[in-house]
Amino acid sequence: MGTTTFSGPIKAGTIKDTTGTTVGTDIQNTGFVLMSQSQVVALTGATANTTVAVIPANSQIVEIFADVTVVSNDTGAANVSVGNASNATAYIAVSNAKVTGRVTAVNAAIISSAFYDVGTSDSKLTAVFQAASGDGTTGSAVVTVYYLQDRNLA
Known about the structure:
There is one protein chain. The protein is built from 1 helix and 10 strands. The protein is mostly beta strands. The protein has a single domain, classed as Jelly Rolls, CATH 2.60.120. The strands form 2 sheets. Strands 3, 4, 5, 6, 7, 8, 9 and 10 form an 8-stranded mixed β-sheet that branches. Strands 1-2 form a two-stranded antiparallel ribbon. The longest helix has 7 residues. It is elongated.
């Protein structure tokens, strides 16, 4: 299937501007389309980061999660973290990656500000799936970021 790329932001709805007081007739009902970016993050023995998304400036992050799809067979702990250039665990702090399942954003201090607006520059999010003992050969997670492009809430 083909894909189409828009420079965005994309809004959808049937009434662009409010001109009256009747719902469904003359009150604005457009909203931003929810965007997403995903990337597979494979197990590493070190802290090598994988870029999972680059969120456009002034966008609002809505949700971030990591789905552990293949558990680590490392004899020690195995963890998945999601962050940005200034904080490698800004969104998902070190989380158990020895079981399959979904890990959602857990760093409340960062979420309260970054989920509001990423700022005036594009924001690169990275992830690492790290095996503590370094003897693991399996492990992967899919990290997904949902955002509203150019929502500009600040």
